[in-house]
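Box 4.2: Ligand-aware structure prediction
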Amino acid sequence: MQASLALKAVTKIFPSGDGVREVDLALTPGEIHALVGLNGAGKSTLMRLMLGMKSPDSGLITLNGVAFDKISPDRWARVGHLIEYPLAYAELTVRQNLILSARLRGSAPDRAKSASATIIEKLNLGKFAERRTGELSLGNRQRVGLASALQHEPDLIILDEPTNALDPAGVILLRTVLLERAANGASVLVSSHHLDEVSRIADRITVINGGRIIGALQPGQPEIERAFFSLVQTDSEAA
Ligand SMILES: Nc1ncnc2c1ncn2[C@@H]1O[C@H](COP(=O)(O)OP(=O)(O)OP(=O)(O)O)[C@@H](O)[C@H]1O
């Protein structure tokens, strides 16, 4: 069964009073869903909740109808994510890191080797494959983090600002891999500040402000930035 993740009235409030409130959101197999919002809007918090890295104060999150405390480790192994910092050992080479991450997700040694070779090619990391990861530029480390999140062909993909440090070539390569995964039925959620980029790849764009979902934008709609700021301004004025 392909992944579909659903949030119902999910709330998580930090002691400061910030957080996310009463969020309803659903990811659909085969769709790329973008989450856009200003700095501090609640995107990373929401993604952490969707990955079980944080627990909600109230509300329910399910994966294919199953509550998080009942999801098996095998099911989690088919999830790919990158939240803020790429997880990689600085002393290991790119290839070693990728093989290790595939093994940690339960891939057999041969499968881990071939999966890492495939993603190294897809994200154009060949030149760096035998270099120590700690020596790479920020953008190439981001590519390694993305490679690790995507190499095991996950059916649920959650990426927090995946294009932040990427050059235009990296953005295009990532776009190709995400479109390919979605075409194969994966549910994809990406957060971004780059409205033009998400407009190009997303099937749906959800806007978050002050921890609440405040509306949607149409991918490809003209003047999408203006529409985004108008939604945010109206919401902020009403608050
Ligand atoms: N662990 C935490 N403890 C207290 N407050 C937190 C914590 N994590 C996030 N927050 C607060 O919750 C709010 C939402 O933060 P979050 O990181 O989810 O925003 P974001 O939309 O991802 O922002 P950005 O675009 O800057 O990455 C912010 O006000 C932030 O300061």
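In the box above, the bound molecule is adenosine-5'-triphosphate. The chain has a mean pLDDT of 93.
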